[in-house]
Write a structure and sequence with these properties.
- The chain is mostly helical and about 230 residues long.
- It is built from seven helices and no strands.
- Helix 4 packs antiparallel against helix 6, helix 4 runs parallel beside helix 7 and helix 6 packs antiparallel against helix 7.
Length: about 230
């Protein structure tokens, strides 16, 4: 039971995180982003489960086409009347035609068998793209959260962003952003758990590297605030 991610637990964790953000920062944009992420998590969990299930109607249709193709190959072999071929030139022509038919049939079978995998891959990559966009939105929310603004007095300019958070509030805000990024990485990992496609797994690894890198910036800010607080204590 501990060898796979539980989508329900991820959604539950995101729901609690959204509540914590709304209680600490009522009406904040970060809370609305977390609400969007929670809804995306529900969609991602359902989509990952759908992609894990085999598409039986498609597989049955492909199987029927393969059987029909095999029957067509047998019928074509009978039509060629190989037992009547005597001349070497005629035999070469007949064999060339047979090989071309086999190659064409094999290529068609391979294409049909790979269609389901490629369609699922495209759907998974589209879902991962949505998660990637949310990760960058979260990063934008913490972009103006400068720890130096709460560590020392400064003179803001007319274009300076409004900074009203205390040291504790800023730390909590950055921590919430880091938690959201970590959960995005886990939502992306749902697709790797359910699928065994190398392209999807590579995309999931890239997502985890992205969210880890973005969260690292936030923890660097938290460490600066914490170090300054310890130095002043």
């Amino acid at each position: 039971m501990y060898r796979a991610l539980d989508p329900g637990k991820l959604i539950e964790t995101l729901g609690r995180l959204q509540t914590r953000i709304d209680e600490r920062f009522p009406g904040s944009g970060l809370g609305r982003v977390c609400a969007e992420l929670t809804e995306t998590a529900r969609t991602s969990a359902a989509e990952a489960a759908r992609l894990a299930r085999p598409s039986w109607p498609w597989r049955i249709a492909v199987g029927a086409l393969v059987v029909l193709g095999v029957w067509a190959q047998v019928a074509a072999a009978k039509f060629l009347h190989l037992e009547r071929v005597k001349a070497d030139v005629d035999l070469l022509q007949v064999l060339e035609a047979a090989v071309n038919l086999l190659l064409l049939f094999g290529g068609t079978v391979w294409f049909l068998l790979s269609v389901e995998k490629r369609l699922k891959r495209e759907r998974a990559l589209d879902a991962l793209h949505s998660l990637r966009a949310l990760a960058h939105v979260i990063d934008m929310h913490q972009l103006t959260k400068d720890p130096t603004a709460v560590l020392k007095a400064h003179e803001p300019t007319a274009a300076s962003p409004v900074r009203v958070m205390s040291r504790f509030e800023l730390t909590r805000y950055l921590d919430y952003c880091a938690e959201m990024l970590a959960l995005i990485g886990k939502l992306a990992a749902l697709y790797a758990d359910e699928m065994r496609d190398a392209v999807v797994i590579d995309a999931v690894n890239e997502m985890e590297n992205l969210t880890t890198g973005l969260a690292r910036k936030m923890w660097q800010k938290i460490m600066l605030i914490d170090a300054a607080g310890n130095a002043g204590a």
